[in-house]
Write a structure and sequence with these properties.
This is ThiF family adenylyltransferase. It comes from Wansuia hejianensis. This protein is 27% helix and 26% strand. 35% of the residues are buried. By secondary structure, it is an alpha/beta fold. The protein has an eight-stranded mixed beta sheet with strand order 16-15-14-17-18-19-24-25, with helices on both faces. It has a seven-stranded mixed β-barrel with strand order 5-7-6-8-9-10-13. A four-stranded antiparallel beta sheet has the order 1-2-3-4, covered by helices on one side. It folds into three domains: 118 residues, Ubiquitin Conjugating Enzyme (Roll), CATH 3.10.110.10; 165 residues, no CATH class; 265 residues, NAD(P)-binding Rossmann-like Domain (Rossmann fold), CATH 3.40.50.720. It has 18 helices and 25 strands.
Length: 581
Amino acid sequence: MDLNLIKNDLLDKPYLSGIKIKNNESYKNQNYDVKIKCELKVGNSWFPIIIGVPNDWGQNLVDIYTALEEIPYIPHIDNKGKLCLFDLEGSIIEKNLLGILNQCILRAQSIIEEGISKENWNDFLEEFDSYILHLPRCKGAKVVMPDSGSSKKISYCPTKEIKKERRKNEPYSQYLKRTETNYYFASINTKDFKEWGYKSSVKNGLYLYSEAVDFIYPPRIDKSISVEYLNVIFQNVKITSDIAKIIRKSKEELFVIFEIKQPNGIYNSFGVIIKAPCFNMDSTLELKEKTEIIPLYVERLDERSLLNRTSFDENILSNKEYLLIGCGSIGGYVFNNLMKSGCKNITLIDHDKLESENIYRHLLGRDYIGDYKVEALRKFGERSLPGLKIKTVAENIQDAIDDCGIDFNDYDYVIAATGNAIVNMWINDYINTNRINTPVFYIWNETLDIGSHVAIIQFDKVGCYECIFKRDEVLGLYDSTSYCKPGQSVTKNVSGCSGTFIPYGSLISIQSSVLFIDLLKKFAEGRIEENIVVSEKGDDYYFKKSGFILSDNYNNQKDKISTIKGNEFKNISCNVCGGKC
């Protein structure tokens, strides 16, 4: 890097003064190719700053520091005095060092100016957690936060067992460090401890809900949390007999998780461990004496928080009941996408066991060979995510209805993922005969990965699943949406008739499941109202290589995804619905 070029460029900036530049310097334990010491003008004041240019400035920009003691308490500064300039997630950086340097300096100027005027103080609330994380002696707590607006008892334990015995020749300072608990798990529900795999001895603490009258900003990151800071939060906490009882019993330490509802509706959470607590509980909760307060950064494990990362809006899929028929290659990936979308209440139906021949195109691998597919998926789901309520029926759908009391009316959505047209036709006929209003999603793959299809069929709308099938005098019944030209045999077998299967890989099942989950969301949001069949083209290389012929549907489809509506595929000669015209 040319230091003279950088210095001359900076000297032209009227908002910088006292510029001193050095090569290969470190600052705050960080190495920089160039370190620049100067003063930055903000409004009518000058603030000392340090600018560090790393070797990888093209990926991570430059760092700018200010002295915490020289500047008012403002957002976007960490405990080392480094300003958070830009969110690099999804950003593209142009390879122009002088331009980047100037942009970062102007951004630092803007952050300080908006902080002093309190214009950006709402950012304190949006990024509350990060300030707690930078507090001195901060520890962590994984917390399943209650979904309620009232204070209550909460249970907690260390996240790992610590052997308290001092090792032979172990220095006492190292012993103290090794035996100190740095992470906790907490929940009001004792079942959560087992679900998340924590078996340590459980103690009682407090979950305190506080509706703030005035904004509660995070504490200063360069100082310990004060008694006065906590008392501002405590004064908005309602004291119950249960709360008072826990406080009186907590002689050595009190574990507290706060959830603060700010005046603008934002919720912030953090925790503390108060050593030897002494409270006044006459009218409001008040911590009386100067005591040691250890901050806790809260990692939320409750569903509403975890699902918040998947969508900008409230998850409209999570509280629905799903019936998934078929747990093979398609059904496995559909199940995975359902639970990852926050769907908890899923009933699985399939009479097959997972065999070794399945594992290369199924979600599950060899650990589950020999298990019924429904049970294998249940185990997989419960090991992956909390709060799932999976029911399983190891029967085919006909027997599940007759013997196990499965009623389609009990579900918000039925998903037929067998990939078997005969089974799908039976479901379609059953739905129409019994006039069941639950919408059904039929999902199936094409041979050799040339495509996938999803049909959304509602009993009271035009067109049904069987309408998709047309009749030819020579070919007989055939799928009118197929990408494979009718009349070709595309099945394989490895052990005679009993081992017949349609060849396709896991990627097409993944594609089908993604297509389904996208349509499910659109349907749930009311963006799809009529019956439709959606078809997505895949790669035709292996299909053609095997000597098969593509249908006109594939050749004439210009877009990757096509949609046909019920009034377009309805069949007035359909034996099931008569086209409902």
